[in-house]
Design a protein that fits this description.
The complex is a heterodimer of chains A (105) and B (467). By secondary structure, chain A is an all-alpha fold. Chain A is 65% helix and 0% strand. Chain A has a domain of 43 residues. Chain B has 467 residues and is α/β, with parallel strands linked by helices. In chain B, helix 14 links the parallel strand 2 and strand 3. Classes of the chains: A mainly alpha (105), B alpha/beta (467).
Protein backbone atom coordinates (compact mmCIF):
# COMPACT_ATOMS: atom_id res chain seq x y z
CA UNK A 1 0.00 0.00 0.00
CA UNK A 2 1.37 3.40 -0.93
CA UNK A 3 1.39 6.46 1.32
CA UNK A 4 -0.98 8.01 -1.16
CA UNK A 5 -3.54 5.22 -0.81
CA UNK A 6 -3.27 5.33 2.96
CA UNK A 7 -4.01 9.05 2.95
CA UNK A 8 -7.07 8.39 0.79
CA UNK A 9 -8.21 5.59 3.05
CA UNK A 10 -7.96 7.98 5.97
CA UNK A 11 -10.23 10.43 4.18
CA UNK A 12 -12.62 7.60 3.38
CA UNK A 13 -12.86 6.32 6.94
CA UNK A 14 -13.35 9.79 8.39
CA UNK A 15 -16.04 10.58 5.82
CA UNK A 16 -17.74 7.31 6.74
CA UNK A 17 -17.94 8.43 10.37
CA UNK A 18 -19.20 11.86 9.42
CA UNK A 19 -21.83 10.15 7.28
CA UNK A 20 -23.00 7.89 10.09
CA UNK A 21 -23.12 10.81 12.50
CA UNK A 22 -25.08 13.11 10.19
CA UNK A 23 -27.44 10.50 8.83
CA UNK A 24 -28.40 9.00 12.17
CA UNK A 25 -30.11 12.34 12.86
CA UNK A 26 -32.44 12.07 9.89
CA UNK A 27 -35.97 11.23 11.13
CA UNK A 28 -37.67 8.12 9.73
CA UNK A 29 -40.26 10.37 8.13
CA UNK A 30 -37.59 11.63 5.73
CA UNK A 31 -36.02 8.29 4.89
CA UNK A 32 -37.29 8.20 1.32
CA UNK A 33 -35.98 11.70 0.57
CA UNK A 34 -32.75 10.68 2.31
CA UNK A 35 -32.35 7.70 0.00
CA UNK A 36 -33.11 9.86 -2.95
CA UNK A 37 -30.73 12.62 -1.79
CA UNK A 38 -27.87 10.20 -1.26
CA UNK A 39 -28.78 8.70 -4.60
CA UNK A 40 -28.20 12.09 -6.17
CA UNK A 41 -24.94 12.52 -4.26
CA UNK A 42 -23.43 9.32 -5.62
CA UNK A 43 -24.06 10.92 -8.99
CA UNK A 44 -20.68 12.48 -8.22
CA UNK A 45 -19.31 9.66 -10.39
CA UNK A 46 -20.20 12.15 -13.11
CA UNK A 47 -16.90 13.81 -12.22
CA UNK A 48 -15.13 10.53 -12.85
CA UNK A 49 -17.13 10.01 -16.01
CA UNK A 50 -16.11 13.41 -17.37
CA UNK A 51 -12.46 12.81 -16.49
CA UNK A 52 -12.42 9.43 -18.20
CA UNK A 53 -14.60 10.15 -21.22
CA UNK A 54 -13.57 13.73 -21.92
CA UNK A 55 -9.80 13.32 -21.90
CA UNK A 56 -7.70 13.45 -25.05
CA UNK A 57 -6.54 9.87 -24.60
CA UNK A 58 -10.06 8.64 -23.84
CA UNK A 59 -9.85 4.88 -23.46
CA UNK A 60 -13.33 4.16 -24.79
CA UNK A 61 -14.81 4.70 -28.20
CA UNK A 62 -17.42 7.41 -28.57
CA UNK A 63 -20.39 5.11 -27.94
CA UNK A 64 -19.17 3.74 -24.61
CA UNK A 65 -18.11 7.22 -23.52
CA UNK A 66 -21.54 8.52 -24.41
CA UNK A 67 -23.30 5.80 -22.41
CA UNK A 68 -20.98 6.33 -19.46
CA UNK A 69 -21.62 10.07 -19.21
CA UNK A 70 -25.31 9.58 -19.92
CA UNK A 71 -25.72 7.16 -17.01
CA UNK A 72 -23.96 9.48 -14.61
CA UNK A 73 -25.85 12.52 -15.85
CA UNK A 74 -29.17 10.68 -15.52
CA UNK A 75 -28.23 9.83 -11.95
CA UNK A 76 -27.37 13.43 -11.02
CA UNK A 77 -30.22 15.30 -12.65
CA UNK A 78 -32.89 12.71 -11.98
CA UNK A 79 -31.75 12.28 -8.40
CA UNK A 80 -31.89 15.97 -7.48
CA UNK A 81 -35.16 16.60 -9.31
CA UNK A 82 -36.95 13.72 -7.64
CA UNK A 83 -35.64 14.69 -4.20
CA UNK A 84 -36.77 18.28 -4.67
CA UNK A 85 -40.20 17.05 -5.76
CA UNK A 86 -40.55 14.87 -2.69
CA UNK A 87 -39.36 17.47 -0.24
CA UNK A 88 -41.68 20.19 -1.45
CA UNK A 89 -44.59 17.95 -0.41
CA UNK A 90 -43.60 17.81 3.24
CA UNK A 91 -45.60 20.45 5.04
CA UNK A 92 -46.23 20.90 8.74
CA UNK A 93 -49.90 21.82 8.28
CA UNK A 94 -52.19 21.75 5.31
CA UNK A 95 -51.71 24.91 3.22
CA UNK A 96 -54.95 26.83 3.32
CA UNK A 97 -58.63 26.08 3.01
CA UNK A 98 -59.93 24.57 6.22
CA UNK A 99 -58.61 26.75 9.01
CA UNK A 100 -60.71 26.14 12.14
CA UNK A 101 -60.80 22.33 12.04
CA UNK A 102 -58.33 21.93 14.89
CA UNK A 103 -60.52 23.01 17.73
CA UNK A 104 -60.83 19.58 19.31
CA UNK A 105 -58.20 19.51 22.02
CA UNK B 1 9.89 11.12 2.95
CA UNK B 2 9.73 14.49 1.28
CA UNK B 3 7.11 17.08 1.91
CA UNK B 4 4.95 17.71 -1.11
CA UNK B 5 5.04 21.45 -1.74
CA UNK B 6 3.30 21.50 -5.10
CA UNK B 7 0.65 24.19 -5.15
CA UNK B 8 -2.86 22.75 -4.90
CA UNK B 9 -4.93 23.42 -7.98
CA UNK B 10 -8.10 25.43 -7.60
CA UNK B 11 -9.97 22.39 -8.87
CA UNK B 12 -9.06 20.53 -5.70
CA UNK B 13 -10.26 23.48 -3.66
CA UNK B 14 -13.55 23.34 -5.57
CA UNK B 15 -13.84 19.63 -4.73
CA UNK B 16 -13.34 20.42 -1.05
CA UNK B 17 -16.17 22.95 -1.19
CA UNK B 18 -18.33 20.32 -2.87
CA UNK B 19 -17.65 17.83 -0.08
CA UNK B 20 -18.64 20.42 2.51
CA UNK B 21 -21.84 21.16 0.58
CA UNK B 22 -22.74 17.46 0.56
CA UNK B 23 -22.23 17.14 4.31
CA UNK B 24 -24.34 20.21 5.04
CA UNK B 25 -26.93 19.02 2.57
CA UNK B 26 -27.35 15.79 4.52
CA UNK B 27 -27.17 17.60 7.85
CA UNK B 28 -30.15 19.76 6.86
CA UNK B 29 -32.16 16.63 6.09
CA UNK B 30 -32.60 16.17 9.82
CA UNK B 31 -35.70 18.36 9.74
CA UNK B 32 -38.43 18.68 7.12
CA UNK B 33 -38.19 22.44 7.53
CA UNK B 34 -34.61 22.66 6.33
CA UNK B 35 -34.55 19.61 4.07
CA UNK B 36 -35.21 21.46 0.82
CA UNK B 37 -32.45 23.93 1.55
CA UNK B 38 -30.19 20.95 2.20
CA UNK B 39 -31.00 19.38 -1.15
CA UNK B 40 -30.23 22.66 -2.91
CA UNK B 41 -26.92 23.11 -1.09
CA UNK B 42 -26.03 19.60 -2.15
CA UNK B 43 -27.02 20.37 -5.76
CA UNK B 44 -24.88 23.52 -5.75
CA UNK B 45 -21.98 21.41 -4.51
CA UNK B 46 -22.52 19.02 -7.39
CA UNK B 47 -22.60 21.92 -9.86
CA UNK B 48 -19.31 23.27 -8.50
CA UNK B 49 -17.64 19.87 -8.87
CA UNK B 50 -18.92 19.36 -12.41
CA UNK B 51 -17.94 22.84 -13.60
CA UNK B 52 -14.49 22.48 -12.03
CA UNK B 53 -14.02 19.14 -13.77
CA UNK B 54 -15.20 20.45 -17.12
CA UNK B 55 -12.55 23.16 -16.92
CA UNK B 56 -9.81 20.55 -17.08
CA UNK B 57 -8.71 19.99 -20.66
CA UNK B 58 -11.82 18.38 -22.07
CA UNK B 59 -11.36 17.32 -25.66
CA UNK B 60 -14.36 15.22 -26.58
CA UNK B 61 -16.85 18.03 -26.17
CA UNK B 62 -19.34 16.60 -28.60
CA UNK B 63 -19.70 13.25 -26.95
CA UNK B 64 -19.56 14.71 -23.49
CA UNK B 65 -21.97 17.58 -24.08
CA UNK B 66 -24.57 15.51 -25.88
CA UNK B 67 -24.45 12.73 -23.27
CA UNK B 68 -24.75 15.27 -20.47
CA UNK B 69 -27.74 16.97 -22.06
CA UNK B 70 -29.55 13.78 -23.05
CA UNK B 71 -28.96 12.26 -19.59
CA UNK B 72 -30.15 15.43 -17.89
CA UNK B 73 -33.25 15.63 -20.09
CA UNK B 74 -34.26 12.02 -19.46
CA UNK B 75 -33.51 12.34 -15.76
CA UNK B 76 -35.42 15.56 -15.20
CA UNK B 77 -38.45 14.67 -17.32
CA UNK B 78 -38.87 11.20 -15.85
CA UNK B 79 -38.32 12.51 -12.32
CA UNK B 80 -41.04 15.08 -12.82
CA UNK B 81 -43.52 12.76 -14.46
CA UNK B 82 -43.17 9.71 -12.26
CA UNK B 83 -46.06 9.06 -9.92
CA UNK B 84 -45.24 9.12 -6.24
CA UNK B 85 -46.42 5.53 -5.96
CA UNK B 86 -43.72 4.52 -8.46
CA UNK B 87 -40.97 6.22 -6.49
CA UNK B 88 -39.18 3.04 -5.37
CA UNK B 89 -38.72 2.01 -9.01
CA UNK B 90 -37.42 5.46 -9.92
CA UNK B 91 -34.91 5.44 -7.10
CA UNK B 92 -33.79 1.96 -8.18
CA UNK B 93 -33.18 3.17 -11.74
CA UNK B 94 -31.12 6.20 -10.74
CA UNK B 95 -29.19 4.02 -8.34
CA UNK B 96 -28.45 1.49 -11.06
CA UNK B 97 -27.32 4.26 -13.41
CA UNK B 98 -24.82 5.46 -10.81
CA UNK B 99 -23.53 1.95 -10.22
CA UNK B 100 -23.11 1.29 -13.93
CA UNK B 101 -21.28 4.57 -14.39
CA UNK B 102 -18.90 3.80 -11.51
CA UNK B 103 -18.05 0.40 -13.00
CA UNK B 104 -17.38 1.95 -16.41
CA UNK B 105 -15.22 4.74 -14.97
CA UNK B 106 -13.04 2.15 -13.25
CA UNK B 107 -12.84 0.11 -16.45
CA UNK B 108 -11.91 3.23 -18.40
CA UNK B 109 -9.11 4.18 -16.06
CA UNK B 110 -7.63 0.69 -16.16
CA UNK B 111 -7.90 0.62 -19.95
CA UNK B 112 -6.09 3.94 -20.14
CA UNK B 113 -3.12 2.45 -18.34
CA UNK B 114 -3.08 -0.61 -20.56
CA UNK B 115 -3.53 1.43 -23.75
CA UNK B 116 -0.41 3.36 -22.82
CA UNK B 117 1.32 -0.02 -22.54
CA UNK B 118 1.87 0.58 -18.88
CA UNK B 119 1.43 -1.62 -15.86
CA UNK B 120 -1.15 -0.49 -13.34
CA UNK B 121 0.05 -0.16 -9.77
CA UNK B 122 -1.41 -2.60 -7.26
CA UNK B 123 -3.46 0.22 -5.79
CA UNK B 124 -5.07 1.01 -9.12
CA UNK B 125 -5.67 -2.57 -10.20
CA UNK B 126 -7.11 -3.59 -6.83
CA UNK B 127 -9.48 -0.64 -6.51
CA UNK B 128 -10.54 -0.61 -10.14
CA UNK B 129 -11.69 -4.22 -9.90
CA UNK B 130 -13.41 -3.32 -6.64
CA UNK B 131 -15.35 -0.47 -8.32
CA UNK B 132 -16.17 -2.61 -11.30
CA UNK B 133 -17.46 -5.46 -9.13
CA UNK B 134 -19.59 -3.40 -6.72
CA UNK B 135 -20.80 -1.03 -9.42
CA UNK B 136 -21.77 -3.86 -11.70
CA UNK B 137 -23.59 -5.77 -8.94
CA UNK B 138 -25.45 -2.60 -8.06
CA UNK B 139 -26.34 -1.92 -11.70
CA UNK B 140 -27.71 -5.40 -12.38
CA UNK B 141 -29.35 -5.70 -8.95
CA UNK B 142 -31.11 -2.36 -9.41
CA UNK B 143 -32.47 -3.44 -12.76
CA UNK B 144 -33.96 -6.59 -11.25
CA UNK B 145 -35.33 -4.58 -8.31
CA UNK B 146 -36.90 -2.19 -10.82
CA UNK B 147 -38.47 -5.04 -12.80
CA UNK B 148 -39.87 -6.54 -9.61
CA UNK B 149 -41.25 -3.25 -8.31
CA UNK B 150 -42.73 -2.37 -11.69
CA UNK B 151 -44.28 -5.84 -11.65
CA UNK B 152 -42.79 -6.67 -15.01
CA UNK B 153 -41.63 -9.81 -13.26
CA UNK B 154 -43.08 -11.48 -10.22
CA UNK B 155 -42.45 -9.83 -6.86
CA UNK B 156 -42.24 -13.28 -5.32
CA UNK B 157 -38.83 -14.76 -4.60
CA UNK B 158 -37.47 -16.78 -7.49
CA UNK B 159 -35.70 -19.82 -6.16
CA UNK B 160 -34.20 -22.97 -7.61
CA UNK B 161 -32.26 -25.87 -6.16
CA UNK B 162 -28.59 -25.18 -5.57
CA UNK B 163 -29.10 -21.42 -5.75
CA UNK B 164 -26.61 -20.63 -3.01
CA UNK B 165 -24.02 -22.89 -4.63
CA UNK B 166 -24.40 -21.15 -7.99
CA UNK B 167 -24.05 -17.76 -6.30
CA UNK B 168 -20.99 -18.94 -4.41
CA UNK B 169 -19.41 -20.22 -7.63
CA UNK B 170 -19.98 -16.92 -9.42
CA UNK B 171 -18.52 -15.09 -6.44
CA UNK B 172 -15.52 -17.40 -6.57
CA UNK B 173 -14.97 -16.63 -10.26
CA UNK B 174 -14.98 -12.91 -9.40
CA UNK B 175 -12.47 -13.36 -6.60
CA UNK B 176 -10.12 -15.45 -8.73
CA UNK B 177 -10.21 -12.93 -11.59
CA UNK B 178 -9.65 -10.14 -9.13
CA UNK B 179 -6.56 -11.88 -7.81
CA UNK B 180 -5.27 -12.46 -11.33
CA UNK B 181 -5.72 -8.80 -12.29
CA UNK B 182 -3.93 -7.61 -9.17
CA UNK B 183 -1.16 -10.15 -9.76
CA UNK B 184 -0.93 -8.61 -13.25
CA UNK B 185 -0.74 -11.91 -15.11
CA UNK B 186 -0.52 -11.77 -18.91
CA UNK B 187 -3.94 -10.94 -20.43
CA UNK B 188 -5.05 -9.56 -17.09
CA UNK B 189 -7.38 -7.19 -18.92
CA UNK B 190 -9.45 -10.17 -20.06
CA UNK B 191 -9.82 -11.32 -16.48
CA UNK B 192 -10.97 -7.84 -15.60
CA UNK B 193 -13.79 -8.12 -18.15
CA UNK B 194 -14.72 -11.56 -16.84
CA UNK B 195 -14.91 -10.16 -13.30
CA UNK B 196 -17.10 -7.33 -14.57
CA UNK B 197 -19.44 -9.72 -16.40
CA UNK B 198 -19.61 -12.19 -13.52
CA UNK B 199 -20.48 -9.36 -11.15
CA UNK B 200 -23.33 -8.37 -13.42
CA UNK B 201 -24.60 -11.96 -13.28
CA UNK B 202 -24.17 -12.03 -9.50
CA UNK B 203 -26.18 -8.82 -9.19
CA UNK B 204 -29.07 -10.47 -11.02
CA UNK B 205 -28.82 -13.73 -9.09
CA UNK B 206 -28.67 -12.06 -5.72
CA UNK B 207 -31.84 -9.98 -6.12
CA UNK B 208 -33.92 -12.73 -7.80
CA UNK B 209 -34.68 -14.67 -4.61
CA UNK B 210 -35.62 -11.56 -2.62
CA UNK B 211 -39.34 -10.92 -2.27
CA UNK B 212 -41.19 -7.64 -2.74
CA UNK B 213 -41.83 -7.11 0.96
CA UNK B 214 -38.08 -7.16 1.58
CA UNK B 215 -37.46 -4.47 -1.01
CA UNK B 216 -36.83 -1.72 1.58
CA UNK B 217 -33.74 -3.64 2.65
CA UNK B 218 -32.55 -4.36 -0.87
CA UNK B 219 -33.02 -0.81 -2.11
CA UNK B 220 -31.06 0.54 0.86
CA UNK B 221 -28.33 -2.02 0.34
CA UNK B 222 -28.00 -1.28 -3.39
CA UNK B 223 -27.85 2.42 -2.54
CA UNK B 224 -24.99 1.69 -0.19
CA UNK B 225 -23.24 -0.40 -2.89
CA UNK B 226 -23.35 2.39 -5.43
CA UNK B 227 -21.95 4.77 -2.83
CA UNK B 228 -19.06 2.41 -2.10
CA UNK B 229 -18.49 1.87 -5.82
CA UNK B 230 -18.23 5.64 -6.26
CA UNK B 231 -15.80 5.87 -3.34
CA UNK B 232 -13.73 3.08 -4.80
CA UNK B 233 -13.66 4.91 -8.13
CA UNK B 234 -12.29 7.84 -6.16
CA UNK B 235 -9.38 5.63 -5.09
CA UNK B 236 -8.75 4.65 -8.71
CA UNK B 237 -8.71 8.25 -9.91
CA UNK B 238 -7.09 9.64 -6.76
CA UNK B 239 -10.04 11.97 -6.36
CA UNK B 240 -11.06 12.97 -2.85
CA UNK B 241 -14.53 14.29 -3.62
CA UNK B 242 -15.54 10.92 -5.03
CA UNK B 243 -14.15 9.21 -1.96
CA UNK B 244 -15.96 11.50 0.47
CA UNK B 245 -19.28 11.52 -1.38
CA UNK B 246 -19.14 7.76 -1.85
CA UNK B 247 -18.39 7.21 1.84
CA UNK B 248 -21.34 9.41 2.85
CA UNK B 249 -23.71 7.45 0.65
CA UNK B 250 -22.22 4.14 1.72
CA UNK B 251 -22.73 5.09 5.37
CA UNK B 252 -26.30 6.19 4.74
CA UNK B 253 -27.24 3.07 2.81
CA UNK B 254 -25.68 0.79 5.39
CA UNK B 255 -27.42 2.55 8.25
CA UNK B 256 -30.79 2.30 6.51
CA UNK B 257 -30.21 -1.36 5.66
CA UNK B 258 -29.54 -2.17 9.29
CA UNK B 259 -32.55 -0.11 10.45
CA UNK B 260 -34.85 -1.93 8.03
CA UNK B 261 -33.52 -5.29 9.13
CA UNK B 262 -34.14 -4.33 12.77
CA UNK B 263 -37.67 -3.22 11.96
CA UNK B 264 -38.34 -6.73 10.70
CA UNK B 265 -36.39 -8.41 13.47
CA UNK B 266 -34.33 -10.18 10.87
CA UNK B 267 -30.66 -10.09 10.10
CA UNK B 268 -29.61 -8.66 6.78
CA UNK B 269 -28.21 -12.07 5.81
CA UNK B 270 -31.60 -13.62 6.47
CA UNK B 271 -33.26 -11.05 4.21
CA UNK B 272 -30.73 -11.59 1.44
CA UNK B 273 -30.57 -15.37 1.52
CA UNK B 274 -33.80 -16.37 3.24
CA UNK B 275 -36.09 -16.08 0.18
CA UNK B 276 -38.77 -14.81 2.56
CA UNK B 277 -42.28 -15.20 1.19
CA UNK B 278 -41.44 -18.18 -0.99
CA UNK B 279 -43.07 -20.60 1.40
CA UNK B 280 -46.56 -21.85 0.72
CA UNK B 281 -47.34 -19.42 -2.05
CA UNK B 282 -49.93 -21.73 -3.51
CA UNK B 283 -51.82 -22.84 -0.42
CA UNK B 284 -55.25 -22.47 -1.96
CA UNK B 285 -55.73 -18.70 -1.92
CA UNK B 286 -54.98 -18.55 1.81
CA UNK B 287 -57.45 -18.18 4.63
CA UNK B 288 -58.22 -21.87 5.01
CA UNK B 289 -58.21 -21.59 8.77
CA UNK B 290 -59.79 -18.19 8.91
CA UNK B 291 -63.54 -18.68 8.92
CA UNK B 292 -64.66 -16.12 11.44
CA UNK B 293 -64.08 -12.99 9.45
CA UNK B 294 -66.88 -10.47 9.41
CA UNK B 295 -67.33 -8.59 6.18
CA UNK B 296 -69.13 -5.22 6.34
CA UNK B 297 -70.29 -2.51 3.94
CA UNK B 298 -68.89 0.96 3.46
CA UNK B 299 -71.94 2.44 5.22
CA UNK B 300 -71.26 0.34 8.31
CA UNK B 301 -67.72 1.66 8.41
CA UNK B 302 -68.94 5.22 7.91
CA UNK B 303 -71.27 4.89 10.89
CA UNK B 304 -68.53 3.37 13.01
CA UNK B 305 -66.14 6.19 12.19
CA UNK B 306 -68.73 8.92 12.70
CA UNK B 307 -69.11 8.04 16.36
CA UNK B 308 -65.42 7.69 17.13
CA UNK B 309 -63.29 10.13 19.09
CA UNK B 310 -59.96 9.06 17.72
CA UNK B 311 -59.15 7.19 14.52
CA UNK B 312 -55.74 5.85 13.58
CA UNK B 313 -55.04 5.11 9.93
CA UNK B 314 -52.52 2.33 9.31
CA UNK B 315 -51.36 2.49 5.69
CA UNK B 316 -49.49 -0.29 3.90
CA UNK B 317 -48.37 -1.23 0.42
CA UNK B 318 -52.02 -1.80 -0.54
CA UNK B 319 -52.59 1.94 -0.20
CA UNK B 320 -49.81 2.59 -2.70
CA UNK B 321 -51.14 0.01 -5.15
CA UNK B 322 -54.67 1.43 -5.02
CA UNK B 323 -53.32 5.03 -4.97
CA UNK B 324 -55.72 5.60 -2.11
CA UNK B 325 -53.71 8.31 -0.32
CA UNK B 326 -55.79 11.21 -1.67
CA UNK B 327 -59.05 9.52 -0.71
CA UNK B 328 -57.67 8.83 2.75
CA UNK B 329 -56.81 12.47 3.16
CA UNK B 330 -60.35 13.42 2.09
CA UNK B 331 -61.80 10.95 4.59
CA UNK B 332 -59.61 12.45 7.32
CA UNK B 333 -60.87 15.93 6.40
CA UNK B 334 -64.45 14.73 6.75
CA UNK B 335 -63.72 13.16 10.12
CA UNK B 336 -61.85 16.20 11.40
CA UNK B 337 -64.83 18.36 10.47
CA UNK B 338 -66.79 16.24 12.91
CA UNK B 339 -64.21 16.88 15.60
CA UNK B 340 -62.66 13.43 15.35
CA UNK B 341 -58.92 13.21 15.81
CA UNK B 342 -57.14 11.39 12.96
CA UNK B 343 -53.59 10.08 13.29
CA UNK B 344 -51.45 7.96 11.03
CA UNK B 345 -49.33 5.04 12.22
CA UNK B 346 -46.28 4.37 10.06
CA UNK B 347 -44.41 1.10 10.34
CA UNK B 348 -40.76 1.42 9.29
CA UNK B 349 -41.05 -1.27 6.62
CA UNK B 350 -44.54 -0.51 5.36
CA UNK B 351 -44.29 -0.25 1.58
CA UNK B 352 -41.39 -0.94 -0.68
CA UNK B 353 -38.74 1.50 0.46
CA UNK B 354 -37.77 3.23 3.70
CA UNK B 355 -40.26 6.01 4.44
CA UNK B 356 -42.48 5.07 1.48
CA UNK B 357 -45.78 5.78 3.28
CA UNK B 358 -44.61 9.18 4.52
CA UNK B 359 -43.93 10.36 0.99
CA UNK B 360 -47.28 9.14 -0.33
CA UNK B 361 -49.22 10.81 2.47
CA UNK B 362 -47.18 13.97 2.05
CA UNK B 363 -48.17 13.93 -1.61
CA UNK B 364 -51.81 13.88 -0.51
CA UNK B 365 -51.13 16.95 1.65
CA UNK B 366 -51.37 15.11 4.93
CA UNK B 367 -49.36 17.27 7.36
CA UNK B 368 -46.31 15.38 8.59
CA UNK B 369 -47.21 16.38 12.13
CA UNK B 370 -50.07 13.85 11.95
CA UNK B 371 -47.74 10.97 11.07
CA UNK B 372 -46.40 8.90 13.94
CA UNK B 373 -43.61 6.34 14.14
CA UNK B 374 -44.35 2.91 15.54
CA UNK B 375 -42.98 3.54 19.04
CA UNK B 376 -44.88 6.81 19.43
CA UNK B 377 -48.22 5.54 18.22
CA UNK B 378 -48.38 2.08 19.79
CA UNK B 379 -49.46 3.33 23.26
CA UNK B 380 -52.21 5.33 21.53
CA UNK B 381 -54.12 2.35 20.17
CA UNK B 382 -55.63 1.58 23.57
CA UNK B 383 -57.25 4.99 23.53
CA UNK B 384 -58.41 4.66 19.95
CA UNK B 385 -61.93 3.85 18.84
CA UNK B 386 -61.20 2.75 15.31
CA UNK B 387 -57.98 1.56 13.73
CA UNK B 388 -58.35 1.77 9.96
CA UNK B 389 -55.91 -0.61 8.31
CA UNK B 390 -55.51 0.28 4.65
CA UNK B 391 -53.69 -2.40 2.70
CA UNK B 392 -51.29 -3.31 5.48
CA UNK B 393 -51.07 -6.88 6.68
CA UNK B 394 -47.91 -8.38 8.12
CA UNK B 395 -46.97 -5.22 10.04
CA UNK B 396 -50.23 -5.57 12.00
CA UNK B 397 -50.07 -9.31 12.58
CA UNK B 398 -50.40 -10.06 16.31
CA UNK B 399 -48.85 -13.48 15.70
CA UNK B 400 -45.52 -11.63 15.62
CA UNK B 401 -46.01 -10.97 19.35
CA UNK B 402 -47.45 -14.27 20.47
CA UNK B 403 -46.93 -17.17 18.07
CA UNK B 404 -43.42 -18.55 18.36
CA UNK B 405 -43.96 -20.68 15.28
CA UNK B 406 -44.86 -17.76 13.07
CA UNK B 407 -42.16 -16.84 10.52
CA UNK B 408 -42.48 -13.23 11.60
CA UNK B 409 -42.32 -13.95 15.34
CA UNK B 410 -40.43 -11.16 17.09
CA UNK B 411 -41.00 -8.55 14.40
CA UNK B 412 -42.12 -5.30 16.04
CA UNK B 413 -45.68 -4.57 14.91
CA UNK B 414 -48.31 -1.88 15.19
CA UNK B 415 -50.65 -2.90 18.00
CA UNK B 416 -53.85 -2.26 16.08
CA UNK B 417 -55.62 -5.09 17.90
CA UNK B 418 -55.56 -2.95 21.04
CA UNK B 419 -57.95 -0.43 19.51
CA UNK B 420 -61.64 -0.77 20.37
CA UNK B 421 -62.52 -1.57 16.76
CA UNK B 422 -60.43 -2.53 13.79
CA UNK B 423 -61.45 -2.06 10.18
CA UNK B 424 -59.26 -3.86 7.67
CA UNK B 425 -59.41 -2.78 4.03
CA UNK B 426 -58.21 -5.55 1.80
CA UNK B 427 -58.57 -6.62 -1.78
CA UNK B 428 -59.49 -10.18 -0.91
CA UNK B 429 -58.96 -12.80 1.74
CA UNK B 430 -55.62 -13.80 0.23
CA UNK B 431 -52.89 -13.87 2.80
CA UNK B 432 -50.33 -11.07 2.95
CA UNK B 433 -47.05 -11.01 1.15
CA UNK B 434 -45.31 -13.31 3.56
CA UNK B 435 -48.08 -15.87 3.05
CA UNK B 436 -48.83 -15.94 6.76
CA UNK B 437 -52.29 -16.14 8.31
CA UNK B 438 -53.17 -13.02 10.23
CA UNK B 439 -55.17 -13.75 13.43
CA UNK B 440 -56.14 -10.08 13.47
CA UNK B 441 -58.78 -10.88 10.86
CA UNK B 442 -60.39 -13.48 13.17
CA UNK B 443 -60.48 -11.09 16.08
CA UNK B 444 -64.09 -10.35 17.14
CA UNK B 445 -63.19 -6.66 17.21
CA UNK B 446 -62.22 -6.73 13.56
CA UNK B 447 -64.40 -6.16 10.55
CA UNK B 448 -63.25 -6.52 6.96
CA UNK B 449 -64.06 -4.20 4.08
CA UNK B 450 -63.17 -6.05 0.91
CA UNK B 451 -62.38 -4.39 -2.40
CA UNK B 452 -60.05 -1.83 -3.95
CA UNK B 453 -58.87 0.46 -1.13
CA UNK B 454 -59.55 3.67 -3.03
CA UNK B 455 -63.08 2.67 -4.00
CA UNK B 456 -63.79 1.47 -0.47
CA UNK B 457 -62.61 4.74 1.07
CA UNK B 458 -64.60 6.76 -1.46
CA UNK B 459 -67.64 4.69 -0.48
CA UNK B 460 -67.02 5.41 3.20
CA UNK B 461 -66.75 9.14 2.45
CA UNK B 462 -70.09 9.04 0.60
CA UNK B 463 -71.57 7.17 3.54
CA UNK B 464 -70.26 9.78 5.99
CA UNK B 465 -71.69 12.64 3.99
CA UNK B 466 -75.09 10.94 3.90
CA UNK B 467 -75.20 10.45 7.67
Amino acid sequence: MTVHLLAELTVFVLALFVGLEVISRVPTMLHTPLMSATNAIHGIVLVGAILVAGAADAPFNAIVSFILVLLASLNVFGGYTVTERMLEMFRPKAPAPKAPADGTK
Amino acid sequence: MTVDTTAASWVDVAYLITAICFIFGLRYLSSPKTARLGNRISAVGMLIAVVATLSQGIVNWWVLGSALIVGAAIGIVSAQRVKMTAMPQMVAIFNGAGGGAAALVAAGELLKVFNANGTPTYDVSFTSVLSAVIGSISFAGSIIAFLKLQEVMTGRPITYPGQQIVNALVALVILVCWGLVVANVPNSLEFFWIALGASFVLGILFVLPIGGADMPVVISLLNSFTGLAAASTGFVLGNNVLIIAGALVGASGTLLTVLMGKAMNRSVTNVLFGAFGAIKTSTAAGGAKQQNVRSVSTDDVAAMLAYANQVIVVPGYGMAVAQAQHSIRELADQLEKRGIEVKYAIHPVAGRMPGHMNVLLAEANVPYTSLYDMDDINPEFERTDVALVVGANDVTNPAARSDKNSPIYGMPILDVDKAANVVVLKRSMNSGFAGIDNPLFDNPKTVMLFGDAKKSIDGVIAGLKAL
